[in-house]
Amino acid sequence: MKEQHNALQLMMLGLQHMLAMYAGAILVPLIVGAAIGLNAGQLTYLIAIDLFMCGAATLLQLWRNRYFGIGLPVVLGCTFTAVGPMISIGSTYGVPAIYGAIIAAGLIVVLAAGFFGKLVRFFPPVVTGSVVMIIGISLIPTAMNNLAGGEGSKEFGSLDNVLLGFGVTAFILLLFYFFKGFIRSIAILLGLIAGTAAAYFMGKVDFSEVLEASWLHVPSLFYFGPPTFELPAVVTMLLVAIVSLVESTGVYFALADITNRRLSEKDLEKGYRAEGLAILLGGLFNAFPYTAFSQNVGIVQLSKMKSVNVIAITGIILVAIGLVPKAAALTTVIPTPVLGGAMIVMFGMVISYGIKMLSSVDLDSQGNLLIIASSVSLGLGATTVPALFSSLSGAASVLAGSGIVIGSLTAIALHAFFQTKQPNSADIKT
Description:
Layout: H1 7-35, H2 40-62, E1 76-78, H3 83-93, H4 95-117, H5 125-147, H6 159-178, H7 181-185, H8 187-201, H9 208-212, H10 231-258, H11 265-284, E2 290-292, H12 295-303, H13 308-323, H14 325-331, H15 336-358, H16 366-384, H17 394-400, H18 403-421
Helix pairs in contact: 1-2, 1-3, 1-13, 2-11, 2-13, 3-4, 3-10, 4-10, 4-11, 5-10, 5-15, 5-16, 5-18, 6-8, 6-15, 8-15, 10-11, 10-17, 12-15, 13-14, 16-18
């Protein structure tokens, strides 16, 4: 992870990572803010503080020290898992209870990070490879929805949107085919730029939000008032944090494999503690719980640029645009179909890397084949048929609402079962 790049290259690589996660980062505050009835000024704050905290959380995770920080090229963003619970808590107990629950959940994760770190033994290659595949597969519907124009769009599925999205995909693939070196490493960024330029001539780019946005926005402690603590809300948000840790674990193992690093219990403990700190800070500044973003795994694999310096630039950019709303608004001009076209390549690379991780597994073992088949099938099923567990409520609803969690728990449970019942049935080549 010691590649050398000049300042301009680092900036472009960091910008590429930021643009890849930006849509997901601002979508959560938009949904939550609208659902809990925030006014325009409050919503502006929520988006700005979220971007600021995404950057701060990323930098915390990069800072590998004695107590926290996994030191992998990982980008953190607000977790989609929190959307439903935050809206529910806000409507039941009020907005301050949302942030009391986030603060409590973050503090518990920080204190229990040592316990969570011991779970590393439950993640052999057959489990981690399956989990990474599930993460990638579960993101494909998001990519296709965006390519079509985004859910709720009046032009959803229009020929213009589809051609624009697939055109971006084709452009990125052509860059990979005809170029090597640095051009190939920023193919996603160039695809986004080219797609936005094409969309401009199609009348799909609107700069009005850039003109209307303010120049400076300062983070504020307890912006929505002093937090309140309700036990049901705290328990719910703790479950959200645990789901986020499970999702992050797959990302950590994928990045460790890409960067040829073996993760220890201590590494995971520090990674989880950094994530807990990010969640805690999110609560204090009235933002969100945070988790590792899997789309950035695809970019690391595509670009072959594994330096944490690149991700540090991403973190700094996010902090900066969180302080300067006008800069943040500039990134929103990228049309949704353009993002969708790039996502197809990024998320596809996450899937392919999961397959690569499974190449170290003994696929002659029926136990391993059953672990992969069952975990991927259940994870994909829960993702594509979200109504499957609609009758559940409370904690069960939070856990079952994530295909990644369903698939991960299935892989872990089956691996433990086969190891216990038939010690040689799920052997893994090391």
